[in-house]
Amino acid sequence: MLFLPELTILGAGLALFAVSLGQFQPRTVKNITAYVLLISLVTTICSIGNNGTMFFGAFKVDLFTQIIKSIVVLGTFIIMLFSNPDAGVKKGTQPEYYLFMLMSVFGLMMLVSANELLAIFVSLELSSFTVYLMVAMRKNDTGALVNGTAQDSTGHGHAGIFCQTGQGMQSEAAMKYLLYGITASGLMLFGMSYIYGLTGSTELPVLAPALAKIFPAPVAVVAVLLILAGFFYKVALFPMQFWVPDVYEGAGNEATAFIATVPKVVGIALLIRIASLIPASGQEVTWVLGSCAVISMFYGNLAALVQKDMKRLLGYSGIAHAGFALLSVAMLGLYGFAIAMYYIIGYLLMTLACFLVICTLSRNGSNLQVSDMAGLYKRAPLLAITLACALFALAGIPPFVGFMGKFMVMVEVLHKGYLVFVVLATINTAIAIYYYLSIVRQAWCTDDKERPAATPSLLVNAAAFFLLITIIAMGVFANPVVNTLAAALSTTFS
Amino acid sequence: MDQLLLNSGFPILSVLIFLPMLGALVLLLIKDEENCRWTALAFTTVVALLSLTLLSGFDSTTARFQFVEMRPWIEAFNINYTVGVDGISILLLLLTTLIMPFCVLVSWTYIKKRVRAFMICMLIMETAMIGVFVALDFVLFYVMWEAMLIPMYLLIGIWGGPRRIYASVKFFLYTLAGSVLLLVAIIWLYMQNGYSFFIPDMMWQSYSTSAQMFLFLAFFLAFAIKVPMFPFHTWLPAAHVEAPAAGSVILASLLLKMGAYGFLRFALPITPEATAIMMPWVLWLSIIGIIYGGFTALAQSDMKKLIAYSSVGHMGFITLGIFTLNLDGIEGAVLQMINHGVTTGALFLCIGMIYERTHSRDIESATGIGKYMPVYITFFTFFSLAAFAFPGTNGFVGEFMIIAGTFKYSLSQGNFPWLALASIPGAVLAAAYMLRMLQRKIWGREHNPDNSWLKEHDLNIREIITLAPFLLFVLWVGLAPKPFLNIMHSSVSALVQNFATCQAKAVAIAGTILN
Asked: Does B139 touch chain A (CB under 8 A)?
């Protein structure tokens, strides 16, 4: 029973494996995946409230893990609602694509529950390697449609150079993603070896008291930071963020929607897990993590200012947002952790809303520029409203979830007495507004004659409506959400 | 909690806040444009009438907050939904609710595209503006303060003039950048006050001087940009000129008041010592604003730009009045806030009406229309006179009290009243630029093209209905300002008294330390 949500996903994976042996319409494959996700969403939500451990204590089920798993499945399900199997994936490989996606979700769910360092490592690799493949499975010809999109003036990475060849962009993206990922994994394993050497155990419940005795010995701090590096990579935080722009641009729109949202929620959950090993008095760690957070914000926001490609822009904005979540984690308190979770869940909703618009507008799966949003209010009013709300929310304008998240992070950080971080974070809020506004401007304040009207399907409309409501409701009624998360976290750590 | 006073169980302020929001939701269901206009008008009118009932229950003998409602909102941070009004905010609240129906009326034919979206923006705007004036919880205040930016941005960016995109982005960035530090200040205050965001609890506390200076800086940046005071004013002409008529009215009449209101509600009571230290600088900055606004207005040929720069000057008078920190100055400033809202709002309405006819905001294209549009020019003349504080109009009363307050301030400091004298050229400049425009519009030589076709296009009934209440108000305040002063008197005098006690205490403490 404890393992039921994972089992449904695994069963679905097997089913898709069988499907991949035959010839099916891409749409059928997608529908199967969506139904399976729906079933596993139900089982996951039903499993909320269960408690217990399995596999000799390596797999832990409690309120917190099940809430996060529900979010993971829900996020993936929403992506299925608006994704177009013909647009983003190489012809004939759709079953494999969805198989890998489900395997990645499976890996993420295992990761949330992992209660032991090796289990964490294996789940993380499972969830990452499948995504590398998803990136490479982008349709060949879509890259060619984006001629000359080397918009990144930050100097590194010019995926656009390969655009004309068609094949190159996604391969380059996958390769970069893979290489950076392996580097991060290596660092993480190195850190784990230190921890094992210091404490003689790999089980988190044993580690916490053992490490508390050793802190603040430099070797222990370094070991924990090295483990965190693996998750820094997953949620794209400085200094492990370099893969973001090219991977976002090179991967298909739907694949990017997945990469940008679901793994980040789990990444922050695991950051919290590892950070909770650090005693609350760990001032040095707070300064290190906080500095990484603030640098992430500045890096992401300043680089996003000059982006023209929607996905690149959202990628950089994601780095900045991850910085906010990390800042809250860096406070090493229960409330800080709960707020970080609230923030990243809000981020998932807002970013999904943006990708919903991108995927719906880009019918052939090509990349969209900011200028492609022109006149959206006329072409698709609901999409325009969704986009505007999501962007204002990302910018941190009340009453949306993004504002409440930022606000609570600032309260928590100032509460711990780090005024410098708060001031730097607020400056970032002011910087970020510019590029979000430039998209809203395109969508609402310009007219466009050439681009065709978009006709979102009923399901897409429903998904947009759902996201819209949750973005507002989570902002206005933040209290129950944060309290639930805090209560769930306190049972996890006790 | 002793600052609260509950008048009745009926949550009238919440109704006022959320009724426009409800109207916006209703509009989502209406497809027909004409019905959209009527629905928006109905909702704003009902809100206006409801807000008038506040006056009957309002007790003007006390400085406490009235019609208070308090409900828990985010308990994890002790954030409450707290609203209430005192003598200062009730006037601004009434100004907001009463001006909104006219903004809808003036947009009746002016707005031709996306009428429904326009009306939704207006109604959401109204909700946020009312929220700003009645919020007694700092988070609620900040939420409303920032939420206001979105509909205003859209109003300028979608329905504005040719350079609307530049103007709207500038407006948004300027005001947002100004208020981010405000958030830090709010959270700091929350930590200092036993984890409470309740605004009255934050007032008249003895924070250290250095903390007060930091808070004041954060407040000043946010509010001075909103007012706007002299070096921060550059967003205003751009936004004013490009906004549609209703947008300009909202900007000039209501949004600018929020900066001044912020000074009165937060800067003075929360950081009295810092205010006392910074007072001379702010006063002289106001004077610079008055003179600068006057000279720049004199050089404009675009009517909207002229009024926009004149607003910089007028708002200079208002901040001058606030920072003299005596009864005359502040009462004059509050009165002048209302006056400026009415007069400048009316002038923008007038310009909007002429723009609808000639499709130009240039003075040159509207010269010599006096003989063709007598009704229009009558209204316009009255409002212009009010704008440069002609005796008998509302502007005179306000400006007179402010200058009187400034004299008092200088004399109480034992100085020669340079400050008051320096503000006089501003008043003269106001007369110069208003009369220059007026003279050209009434008697000016007609330029090509001939404007005689305007003869059949004098104001229609809807436009007269829109302008008449403004004229009535101009004369009412001009001739009998007493009722308005009565409403605010208790609150303002309590503010001045508390400030004086705080000063005395600070001086006493400084004295004991020195001895």
From this structure: yes
